[in-house]
Amino acid sequence: MTTNPSTPSESTLQAFADMSAALTGFQSSFIRPFLDPVNLSGTFYSFAVSQVGQPRMDALLNTFNNLSNQTPKLTPQQIADTLLETALDAPSLQAQLCQSIVAMWYLGSWYTPGVLGGNGFAPPALQVITSQAYTKSLVWNLAQSHPMGFSPFTFGYWSQEPASLQTFGVDTSNGGGQ
Amino acid sequence: MKKTITIILLTIIAATLVIMTSIPTTMAPADSNPAIVLSPNIPGDATFGPLPPNPTNEQKLLAIQGDFDIYSWNTFIALNWPPGLDGNGDPTRKIGQNGDNDTVWEHYRDVADVFLPGGATPSWNGPVSVPTQCKASYKPGMRILSQVGKTPTVLTDFSQPFNTGPLIDQNGNYTRYEILVNKPMFDYILANKLYSKAGQQAFKGEVQFPCGGPNGPEGAIMVKSSWKVISPADRARFHTQTVLVYSPASQNPKYPASCSTKLMGLVGLHIGHKTDSGAQWLWSTFEHVDNAPSEADIGSNNTLKPKTYNYYNPKCSTANCPPNKVPPRPWNPTKVSAFHSQVVRMNMFKGNEFAFQSAAARNADALQLLLGVNSKSVWRNYELISTMWPTNTGKCQAAPGDPLGTPAPNFLANTTLETYIQGMVPNVSSNCIECHNNATMTNARASDFTYILQRAQ
Amino acid sequence: MSNGASPQYDVVIVGAGVSGNLIAKQLGLAGKKVLILEAGLPVPDSREEYVNNFYLALAKTPESPYPALAGRTGSQQNPVGVLPDPSKLPTPRATVLSIGKAPDVSYLVQAQPWIETHDPKLPPQNPPPDENGNIMGLQFSSTFERNGGGTSWHWLGTSLRELENDIQLQTKYGHGVDWPITYPELQQLWALAEKEIGVAASTAEQQPLEVVGLVFPPGYEYPMQSIPKSTVDDAVSKGIAGLQVPGTLPDTPGGSDPTMYNVFVTPTPQGRNSEPYDDRRVCAGNTNCIPICPIQAKWDPTVTLGKALDTGNVTVSYQSVAYNVEVDGSNATRVDYYVWSRDANGNLTKVSKSVTGKIYVLAAHAIENAKLLLMSNNWQGIANSSDQVGRNLMDHPLYLSWALAPEPIFGYRGPLATSGIESLRDGEFRKYRSSFRMEIGNEGWNFSKGDPYTTALDYIQGTNNTGTNDGGPNGAPQRLAGVQLAEKLNNILTRQFRIGCMFDQSPMAENRVTLDVTNGKPNNVDGLGLPRPKVEYGLDPYTMEGFRMAAYVCSQVYQKMGAKEFTTTGMGAAGDFTYRGVNYHYYGAGHVVGTHRMGNKSGSSVVDASQRSHDVPNLWIVGSGSFPTVCTANPTLTLMALAFKSADSIIAALG
Known about the structure:
The complex is a heterotrimer of chains A (178), B (457) and C (655). Chain A has one domain. The longest helix of chain A is centred in the first third of the chain and has 15 residues, at 10-24. Chain A has a two-stranded antiparallel sheet. With 178 residues, chain A is mostly helical. Chain A has 8 helices and 2 strands. Chain A starts with 9 loop residues before the first helix and ends in a 36-residue tail after the last helix. Chain B has 457 residues and is an alpha+beta fold. Helices cover 20% and strands 16% of the residues of chain B. Chain B has helices at residues 2-22, 57-79, 183-191, 197-202, 295-299, 353-373, 432-436, and strands at 109-110, 143-146, 176-181, 221-229, 240-247, 258-275, 278-288, 382-390, 393-394, 397-398, 407-408. In chain B, strands 1, 2, 3, 4, 5, 6, 7, 8 and 11 form a 9-stranded mixed β-sheet that branches. A two-stranded antiparallel sheet of chain B has the order 9-10. Chain C has helices at 18-29, 48-56, 114-117, 169-173, 183-197, 203-206, 231-239, 301-310, 366-379, 446-449, 453-461, 482-493, 541-561, 636-654, and strands at residues 9-14, 34-37, 109-110, 244-246, 260-262, 266-267, 314-317, 320-328, 331-342, 348-355, 357-362, 397-404, 419-421, 436-441, 496-503, 512-515, 517-518, 521-522, 533-536, 564-565, 576-579, 582-585, 587-588, 619-621. In chain C, the strands form 7 sheets. In chain C, strands 6, 12, 13, 14, 15, 20 and 23 form a 7-stranded antiparallel β-sheet that branches. In chain C, helix 1 runs parallel beside helix 8 and helix 5 (183-197) crosses helix 14. Chain C is globular, with a radius of gyration of 24 Å. Chains in contact: A-B, A-C, B-C. At the A-C interface, helix 1, helix 5, helix 6, strand 2 and helix 7 of A face helix 2, helix 11 and helix 12 of C.
């Protein structure tokens, strides 16, 4: 397999996926399963790079790798809070990029970093990244459901309570509480 | 440096552990190198070889797709093996040794003989239901390609799923379909009385067809075949049968019943098999090599081989013969149609190129074996399109939180069986597992990935 | 002008929607030769393209799968993508994204709201009432499609029957007008429609609604078992047990109805499969009925069109926009239409053609039917001695309220709506205020707030656009990450639900569709040069009193459930109005009715009970435009029922 400069390496993609897992609160195996025929990690990585440029992505992954290698080991929640700067009033450019990455996974769309909604409305998305980005978007897992327009369930499921949030991929054991 | 080694080791160990949970059959003593073989033994499940070291995602998918494609070819060969008296493949003979041969799967039970009028109890070996119009021409042992039942909710045999449209060949004849089930599948239906509406209503619990395992025996297998009317001159290039083609009377469109004897050639074969590694079933699909050109073939023009396609006229322009258009209604299979389907195989593997690569390699291997039996084997004219398999599943049951099992490849179609949904739109374009996940019994309860149970009367 | 030649067809139908396809099917089965002229694009061979359009749409509105599409790239200037210019389209239509916009975006030419036409720095205002207390100059907010299959590609599937008193509002309550048809006849026709569509329900479950006059002929059974209720339905149903509300609130103008009415939930008869039916799959709860069911478990008019084509007697001419129905004396003699296409460069071209039939049927939906009638005969109009064509435009204006349940109730699952509160649809109060039904939504705050997007972004970015994110210090919004973010969103999304109240709006002559022309010249045209519809619309106090009551009932429901209400209304935007000092917002329910109403008296109605024109005996004008009042049920089932009656009368007239 020839290396294409624009094709990220396995380790880069895995780092991107692990970082995304921490940021979104989902298990790594949900973000980038062992076998990944859909490869949203690759799609999202490339799309983000196309929007913010390779240097910013490299810098972000570098920051993430440093955080991951700290001793004592940080929890995914701590890494997420650090990258997204939840304790600060005004998130930095890098934290805004992380927000857009969370939005990609949750919503399947790219939201320009730093552009907020207002007046009761969400900010405008640049675009839905791909139809699979939408049909595999994860915010619906947070509702313990499925994307509108793509149900993997069978007739009558809606009359029963759904499976747990953990089953839907959230790493509740590594918890955030609340 | 040491840290890097540790990380690599941990990754390999982690990867191995995950292999064990997502493709559990590797826990069993696996074939170290699965291969396509000439054997009448139907594989109970796929078996798996080792992954390359430090594999990328693509490499993993290519390797495991390869294992499933080997499984598909071994299944195709075994199912198309000439049967002995007991219905199993006859070990004293070989597939294609005389060119063509009767096959094991054609002695499976047609769903028309499983879901009988009034919900009557079916039998595995009992007589075939012969429609009135066919009785004059019928000889015992003849197959009948027929519409199943007269109830309006039943799939017709000449229209693709959900009545999306028929496939009409270049001579104006309708393509015909049939569905058959193997004995384990039949036995499960019989034992649980799922052959009738009343039985399905009374059934408690979930429908769970039996899974095949890597050391056999096979699990539930359902076969869907597509057939084209051919002339005797074409015999050498097809697996053929002389059958009775039956169309019952129809109210709308209005036409009378008809039955006639026809020489038919096999153009497509779907094999669905419930296995330990395929809780959402494994879906193998084969086509006759002359069915249709691919998008790529047409695009570069000079690669369009000067040959006769089953479902494509190279002399008709795109403007006059737009590809993959549903024939206009009304559809009347008892008449020769002025409209001919112009079929093109669309590329549904974008982003899943491993599916192409694997199928091409396995097709080459299989061809060698089949030609080795007889250079005129009719089976040399069939190719695997791909195998759809769940990448994330438990042993004979879905992984929690992933009812569809995240199939690979993402989309798959047979040009003779899913002609009109050869796209890449989730939930709509052809994806065996996604579509069959919607299958239910007559009372809307889930039917374990098969639509045949909704035929019960 | 007739040249003595035989008509080319028995019947020419304009429009391949619910009514047009149903009538074509019935005629085809009876051996009659039918041509359908459909303005828009053909029914596609598969719904891949439409569903993909939906997946990629920035704003997943009812029109989002169907051409012409909004752009797929958003920006501050065009947050929902660039919207197509109706003056360049061959078949522009009303869309949700264009409501309240200027004619370079909005196909319907109508009043714009304050925020579109005033400096954003000025405090916004709502239009004042006129001397009758009516608030005019409001935006008609319902939309439609112009393509093979029509608007009901994106109907929800709700298949309720009207009530006995719905169709005699004037006789019983002195308001509105009566329908010129009896309830027993409608019951027979509904049964036919329920079978055609495949409606899932059980008469036993509907029995509690006898209290509002919903009765079935003895022994009647629906074609399929009912659709299971959702967890949201159950939560509402349990939470409101015992709730009662009065017929009217204090100080209702005109009188009072102090009766206490029981508020309870019943499952909704729905046109989606609860068993394999008609070669279509069983509902898998894609929660996407509007705008498109990806697996066609929900019936849509293309199903019936397929059966019409199966007869061998029906032809469809697509991209064929009728612009004139020629009437000679009192007989319709031909339809003129444009066949449009795009050349290799994408330029729109058109060719004028004509076709003749013995009988003509206009089935182009309520606004296009009116427009065609008004355009015919050199814009003098036809079939309009009553002067009612285009008038009495009605909708079910929809009041939306939403709340957070105290515990998770798991919305965003199942069909969009599986139950409702139908028990308040009838009573003495209809003398004084509009009645309404209440639809319980299964889709969380998707309709209400564009969720889950708005809530997700609130907690990712630290904003409070949904009203729930005020848990930080001093009520500031929180900005969360990781599992904390996930669990917070889970906590909120699983408790969201909404109720939509749909009002029996009064027929008003001044609510009307006319041609947008001045001094014989169109002010705005479409891509074929045809004039655009001008719409004038408002609400009367009778209807607005209904809003007042609905807001009260919704709040009572939430209170009884222990739910926290989050309903907000705005000021100065499309759909905002103020009544008796309180701000309300209405949406369009997509139920466009009234523009060619039926009646026994030709002086005050356009068609009779068979939807045959009073003026032009070989012209039928069919669809929801024939409804003289909008009643309290969603209109599709009833309009199909009426189409069965029309088909019979056409077959009889053909002899």
